Amino acid sequence: MQQGGTQYIDSFGLVRSGSDVQGETPIVRFERLVGDLPAQQDNAMVSWSLKGETDTVGRHWLHVGIRACPVLVCQRCMQPFVYQVQAENTLQVMKSEAELDALEAREEDEDEVTERIVGTQRMDVLALVEDELILALPYVPKHEVCPSLPEALADSGSDDARPSPFAVLGKLKKD
Ligand SMILES: [Zn+2]
Predict the structure, then answer these.
(1) Ligand 1 center to 66 CA (angstroms)
(2) Alpha-carbon dihedral 62, 63, 66, 72, rounded to 10 degrees
(3) In whole angstroms, how large is the CA radius of gyration of the chain?
(4) Which residue, of 73, 93, 148, 153, has the fewest CB within 10 Å?
């Protein structure tokens, strides 16, 4: 087990040994993710884990787990709210681009396509985690139930009238 400072790992080593790596990284370090989002909570962390696997027929897999609580903007009421992400994904790790291309050419007609990455001895862990985190976000984020607003506030559209994300978080936590 290693802490979040580790940025590059040998993905071949990970899948061959079946070992795992995990860490916690401040959400603001994921610049592609937070670039289009409202201000995030202070000290919000992304917990992530990677586990390698080699199956009985010699295929290599990487299991990615992510937990995070990004602040998103509800597309119905346009207010920020805290969205809980708990995502797991499994990627097949290929030895080379050529191996990847050959395999995908054979599988063109399959409905369900396995997600694959090309392995590297210097895999950028946080870039991979960021990709998975972005994929885990809803395309159109919405509150389950929007907090009701006095009509005067709802109509004014003023930024000043919006509750802080923390007030919204407080409401979510009671559910
Ligand atoms: Zn809403």
Answers:
(1) 24
(2) 70
(3) 20
(4) 148
The DSSP bridge partners found for residue 22 are 49
Query: What pTM does this model have?
Result: 0.77
**Cross-strand bridge partners of residue 24:** 47
DSSP conformational letter for 40: P
How far is ligand 1, taken at its centre, from the CA of residue 128, in Å?
A: 30
Residue 46 bridge partners (DSSP): 25
Give the distance (Å) from ligand 1 centre to CA of residue 38. 14
Q: Select from 12, 39, 2, 19 the least CA-distant residue to 126.
A: 2
For 73-94, what is each residue's pLDDT tens digit? Answer: 999 999 999 999 999 999 999 9
Instruction: Give the distance (Å) from ligand 1 centre to CA of residue 132.
Output: 24
- In whole angstroms, give the CA distance from residue 91 to residue 64: 8
Domain boundaries, given as residue ranges, for the chain: 8-173
Ligand 1 centroid–CA 82 distance in Å is 11
pLDDT in tens, 120-149: 999 999 999 999 999 999 999 999 999 976
